[in-house]
Design brief:
There is one protein chain. The chain folds into two domains: 1-32, no CATH class; 34-100, no CATH class. The chain is 11% helix and 39% strand. The protein has one helix and five strands. The radius of gyration is 16 Å and the shape is extended.
Length: 100
């Protein structure tokens, strides 16, 4: 995936250019209406088992996040069916790649 930041005349863009079929398929879900999109801030860290975990930053007692990581994730969740008053729970999508 190629990622570019483009800033001109006050317009700021994040440009995602897929380089594989998997990346094309994931980006296609952004455009086809099958997914709701949200932005999350969090951190990724390596575990002793050799995999990578994600942790969403949550405020501490003092109101500041535990970790000052600047990672931003674009999260795609199944779209809420038209006429469904309750959106799907985000809890299942809080931890990508494992749970804590």
């Amino acid at each position: 995936m190629k990622i570019a930041l483009y800033i001109e005349d006050g317009l700021e863009q994040v440009v995602l250019t897929p380089e594989s079929e998997t990346e094309k398929a994931i980006l296609g879900k952004i455009h086809d209406g099958s997914r709701d999109i949200s932005l999350k801030r969090g951190t990724f860290y390596g575990c002793r088992g050799g995999w990578t975990r994600h942790r969403e930053l949550r405020p501490t007692l003092h109101g500041m996040p535990e970790n000052q990581d600047d990672s931003t994730m674009i999260v795609l969740t199944p779209a809420t069916p038209k006429g469904d008053p309750m959106p799907p729970s985000q809890d299942a999508y809080d931890f990508v790649g494992g749970s804590e």
